[in-house]
Amino acid sequence: MSEQSVRHRFLALPSEQKLKLDRVTSPRCQLTPVPNLSTSAILDINDTSITVTGDDFEDTCILGEGFFGQVFKMRLKSTKESFAVKKIPFCNLDPRNPDMIADLEIGKLHPHPFLLRSYCAFTHVDSVWILLELMDISLDVLLNKVKALNEYIPENVLKHITFSIVSALYYLRFDMNMIHRDIKPANMLANKSGEIKLGDFGTAVTLSNCEILTDVGSWRYLAPERVSCGSIKNYGVKSDIWSLGLSIYELATGTNPYEPPKDPVDAFNQIVNRDPPSLSSDLPYSNHLRDFLNMCLIKEVSERADYNDLLVSDFIRSVDVNSHLITTAQFLVKYI
């Protein structure tokens, strides 16, 4: 299957949607507001455009913390619509990164069905607020609920999750020339309709950016080349593929294979010196899934699969998008 046919099958995008991602790199202190943003923005929702500021929203609850700030569930007072709002303090933004500023503007990037939608961004008090699509559950929370009932995530659901995230990462790589750098279940989100979307682009960078070589991301999902100082120059696209494989492994088994480290040397020993994890034959999964994970979890970067390899793997090729969407929605009912 050619790259063009892979792209046509997996990445056909609805032209009417608008999507924005927030790319940010490592934090530098900035004490003044972001110059390309104002204290208000145009919010397009339900076929209506309205001007909003931070005062138009009320907190509902905190959803979590990302690499650069916190995410809240907030309600627009006038319409009662709810959003996920990422609040990034000015001191966590890098004014020397023009891509970061540009991507906080409205309508600059193309849509994709497997990336979390962004509506608008503005400044409020001492932070940038980014209004995001509100999903129902993150996959780390889902996994904890599944484990509490002593159950497993069915393979067809894992297949739908994997297809969605691989498609999102492929789009980031080939359409936006970006890598994510923080792939983990907590950044994979689901809704009641069965949709799976990749979120939290707080550590994403363009491939031309030298910050690509820095050690960000949750350490237990880092590829060996990101932990080994001697190999750090090799860090790139395939490091996200290792993190993807480890995330799907965790969703399948219910556990991350690496223990919390005692120190950096312990982290190095676990990830670099141990054999890569492999899916036990005792678990109720197919060899297609085992083979897929083995393709992702290869220590040697040059031998690890790339996105085209993953998309034409037996595990992904057998995806029926509509059927697996319904299957996933039915599975999620019990946990949302």
TrEMBL record:
Pfam families: Pkinase (PF00069). Residues 57-316 form the Protein kinase domain. GO terms for molecular function: ATP binding; MAP kinase kinase activity; protein serine/threonine kinase activity. Gene3D superfamilies: Phosphorylase Kinase, domain 1, Transferase(Phosphotransferase) domain 1. GO terms for biological process: stress-activated MAPK cascade. It comes from Schistosoma mattheei. Keywords: ATP-binding, Kinase, Nucleotide-binding, Serine/threonine-protein kinase, Transferase. Belongs to the protein kinase superfamily. STE Ser/Thr protein kinase family. MAP kinase kinase subfamily. ATP binds at K87. Signal peptide: none annotated. This is mitogen-activated protein kinase kinase. InterPro entries: Kinase-like_dom_sf (IPR011009), Prot_kinase_dom (IPR000719), Protein_kinase_ATP_BS (IPR017441). Its EC number is 2.7.12.2.
